[in-house]
C-alpha cells in the first residue's frame, strides 16, 4: 500500500474493554483507509474522503471475516467485503466514530472519520491519464455512492472497486499491467471507454542520503507525469524517459526526516479545481527561454472553466501566491490587476509588490480609468495601513503619483516628512516627493530641480554617483517636462568604479528622459533611445 500516512499506531485501551488494538489511518488518492490490528488479526476499511452530511457512499472491507464494523448505527460484516452507508446529518468538520466489534458485539477499537464540506455535483466524467499499478486511483464523475452498480476494467482486467461517493469512484489498478492500456467504465446502463497508462512506481534507499525513485511503463510517453515525494514534486517529461521505458532519479534527504522508511513516491491526482490549478502552477517551464507565467496561463485556459476564483484563493498560499498572481496577469491583465488591488493590503507585501510593480512598470496614459481608480484606492489603503512595509509604501507612493490628484498631497506630504521607522526612509521620501511633483506641487518640483542642478565633481565618490542616480530616478517618476533641462547635463556625468562595482549616472539620466518625454515611468518596459540621440534631443530643446 503506497499512500501518504496520516496517522500511525494509535494503540490504546477503551474504558470498558481489555483488548489492546493498533490503529493506522492512511490517506490514499480519493479515499481513507483505516486498519485495525487486534491480537494479530487485521481489518481494513476503505471509505471515500469527500462524503458530506446525508450522502450515500460505499466502501470495501478486508481482513478476518468474523468481525463487524459499525458507523453511525449502520453495520457491515467483514465477511461481506463491502458496505453501503449514509453519512449522518452532523456538521461538516465533525468526526463520526468507525467502531470495530467482534461477532458478539464487543467493541475492540474505534477510529474517527471526518465529515466533509458539501461540494458541487460533478456533471462529467474525468478519467486519470495515469494509474499506479497495484494501487488506488480515482475516477471523477456523476456517481451515486452505490458501488454495486459500478465496474471498471483496465487492460481487460477488473479493477477492484474500493470506494464510491456521489462524485468519485476509487479503484485499485491491476498490479502487473504496464504501459498504455484500454479502460472501460460501467455505471448501471452507462458505459464509457478510453485509454490510460499504467505505471510501476518504486522507491528505495540506496544510502542514508538519498531516496531512489524508479518509474516503469513510460515508453511512448507524450504527457508529463507528476509524482510527489513528501512535499516535493517531480515532473517526468518524455525526454526524461530511457529507451527501456523507465525513469530513475534520486531524491536528496536532509537527514532530518523521521519517516524515511515510509516515504514513497506517488502519482498526483488533482481531484478539485484548487488541486488542478495548483498543479499547473507547480509545473516547471517546458522552454527555459519562455515565460513561466505565460505557459501556466496557456494551460489554465485549457481547463474548461474559469480559473480566476481559484487563483485568487491561492494568492495567500505561501508557496504558490506569487505564481498565482503572475499567471493571472498573463491570462487577463485588466482583470488580474482589479483582483490584486482589491485584495490589498490584507493579501500581504508580496502581492502588493507584484500588483504595484506591474501597474507602475506597464503604466501608460491610455490605461483604462477603472484600473487607475482601483490602483489609487489600493495605494491609499496601503499608505494608511500602519503595518505596511517600506517596499510596499514606496511602490504605493509611485502608484499614487500616477493615479492621484492634488487632493492626495496631504497624505503624500505626511510620508515625505516621516523620518524614522523604515530602513528605506530616503527612498520613501524620494517616492513621495516625486509623486507630489507629478501632481503639481511647486516646492517639491523645485527641490528635485535644485538637487539635479548641483553638478557632480570631476572625480565623484561612489555615494555621490549613487545619489545622483536616485535623484534622476525621482525626476523620471515626477514626469515633469520642466525637469528636462536639469536632467540633460547628467548625460555626461562620469562613472565611478570601486573594485568591481560601477555607478554610472548616464543610464539613469536616459531612463528619466525616456519617462518624461513619453509620460511613462523609469520602470516601464520600453526601449530608450541611444545616448547620442538623447544628447541631440537635449541640444534641440535648449
Which range does the strand content fall in? 25-35%
Major sheet: size, sense and barrel closure? Answer: 15 strands, mixed
Please give the radius of gyration in angstroms.
32 Å
Helix coverage percent of residues? 25-40%
Uncertain spans: 1-18
Any idea what the shape is? elongated
Q: How many extended strands?
A: 24
Number of helices: 15
Class from helix and strand fractions: alpha+beta
**How far do the termini sit from each other?**
81 Å
Tell me, rounded to a whole number, the average pLDDT.
Answer: 91
Give the topology, please:
Elements: E1 4-8, E2 22-28, E3 31-38, E4 41-48, E5 56-63, E6 67-71, E7 74-77, E8 82-86, E9 95-102, E10 107-114, E11 130-132, E12 136-140, E13 150-154, E14 157-164, E15 168-172, E16 179-187, E17 190-207, E18 210-216, E19 225-229, E20 232-236, E21 247-252, E22 266-267, H1 273-282, H2 292-301, H3 308-314, H4 321-331, H5 333-343, H6 349-361, H7 369-384, H8 390-403, H9 409-417, H10 425-438, H11 442-453, H12 462-478, H13 484-487, E23 496-498, E24 501-503, H14 505-518, H15 531-541
Parallel strand pairs: 11-17
Antiparallel strand pairs: 1-2, 2-3, 3-4, 4-5, 5-8, 5-14, 6-7, 6-9, 9-10, 12-15, 13-14, 13-16, 14-15, 16-17, 17-18, 18-21, 19-20, 19-22, 23-24
Amino acid at each position: 500500500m503506497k499512500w501518504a500516512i496520516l496517522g500511525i499506531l494509535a494503540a490504546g485501551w477503551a474504558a470498558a474493554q481489555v483488548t489492546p488494538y493498533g490503529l493506522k489511518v492512511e490517506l490514499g488518492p480519493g479515499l481513507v483507509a483505516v486498519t485495525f490490528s487486534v491480537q494479530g488479526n487485521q481489518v481494513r476499511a476503505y471509505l471515500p474522503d469527500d462524503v458530506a452530511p446525508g450522502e450515500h457512499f460505499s466502501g470495501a472491507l478486508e481482513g478476518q471475516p468474523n468481525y463487524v464494523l459499525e458507523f453511525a448505527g449502520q453495520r457491515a460484516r467483514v465477511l461481506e467485503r463491502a458496505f453501503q452507508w449514509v453519512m449522518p446529518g452532523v456538521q461538516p468538520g465533525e468526526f463520526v466514530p468507525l467502531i470495530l466489534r467482534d461477532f458478539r458485539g464487543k467493541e475492540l477499537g474505534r477510529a474517527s472519520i471526518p465529515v466533509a464540506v458539501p461540494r458541487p455535483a460533478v456533471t462529467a466524467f474525468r478519467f486519470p491519464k495515469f494509474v499506479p499499478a497495484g494501487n488506488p486511483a480515482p475516477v471523477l464523475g456523476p456517481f451515486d455512492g452505490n458501488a454495486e452498480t459500478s465496474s471498471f476494467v483496465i487492460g481487460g482486467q477488473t479493477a477492484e472497486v474500493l470506494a464510491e461517493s456521489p462524485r468519485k469512484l476509487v479503484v485499485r489498478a491491476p498490479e502487473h499491467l504496464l504501459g498504455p492500456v484500454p479502460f472501460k467504465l460501467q455505471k448501471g446502463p452507462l458505459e464509457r471507454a478510453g485509454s490510460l497508462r499504467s505505471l510501476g512506481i518504486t522507491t528505495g534507499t540506496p544510502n542514508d542520503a538519498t531516496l531512489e525513485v524508479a518509474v516503469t511503463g513510460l515508453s511512448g510517453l507524450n504527457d508529463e507525469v507528476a509524482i510527489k515525494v513528501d512535499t516535493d514534486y517531480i515532473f517526468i517529461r518524455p525526454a526524461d524517459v530511457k529507451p527501456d521505458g523507465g525513469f530513475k532519479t534520486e531524491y536528496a534527504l536532509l537527514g532530518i526526516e523521521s519517516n524515511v522508511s515510509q516515504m514513497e513516491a506517488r502519482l498526483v491526482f488533482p481531484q478539485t479545481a484548487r488541486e488542478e490549478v495548483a498543479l499547473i502552477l507547480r509545473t516547471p517551464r517546458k522552454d527555459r527561454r519562455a515565460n513561466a507565467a505565460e505557459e501556466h496561463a496557456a494551460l489554465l485556459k485549457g481547463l474548461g472553466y474559469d480559473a480566476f476564483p481559484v487563483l485568487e484563493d491561492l494568492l495567500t498560499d505561501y508557496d504558490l501566491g506569487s505564481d498565482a498572481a503572475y499567471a493571472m496577469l498573463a491570462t487577463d491583465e485588466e482583470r488580474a490587476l482589479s483582483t490584486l488591488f482589491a485584495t490589498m493590503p490584507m493579501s500581504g507585501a508580496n502581492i502588493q509588490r507584484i500588483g504595484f510593480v506591474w501597474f507602475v512598470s506597464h503604466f501608460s496614459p491610455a490605461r483604462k480609468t477603472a484600473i487607475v481608480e482601483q490602483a489609487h484606492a489600493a495605494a491609499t489603503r496601503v499608505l494608511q495601513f500602519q503595518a505596511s512595509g517600506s517596499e510596499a509604501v514606496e511602490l504605493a507612493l509611485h502608484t499614487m503619483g500616477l493615479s492621484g490628484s492634488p487632493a492626495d498631497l496631504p497624505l503624500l506630504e505626511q510620508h515625505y516628512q516621516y523620518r524614522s521607522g523604515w530602513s528605506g526612509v530616503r527612498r520613501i521620501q524620494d517616492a513621495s516627493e516625486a509623486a507630489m511633483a507629478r501632481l503639481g506641487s511647486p516646492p517639491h518640483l523645485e527641490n528635485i530641480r535644485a538637487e539635479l542642478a548641483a553638478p557632480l565633481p570631476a572625480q565623484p565618490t561612489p555615494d555621490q554617483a549613487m545619489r545622483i542616480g536616485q535623484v534622476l530616478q525621482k525626476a523620471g517618476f515626477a514626469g515633469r517636462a520642466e525637469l528636462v533641462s536639469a536632467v540633460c547635463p547628467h548625460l555626461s556625468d562620469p562613472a565611478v568604479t570601486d573594485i568591481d562595482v560601477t555607478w554610472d549616472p548616464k543610464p539613469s539620466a536616459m531612463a528619466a528622459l525616456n519617462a518624461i518625454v513619453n509620460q511613462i515611468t523609469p520602470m516601464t518596459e520600453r526601449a530608450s533611445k541611444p545616448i547620442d540621440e538623447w544628447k541631440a534631443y537635449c541640444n534641440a530643446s535648449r
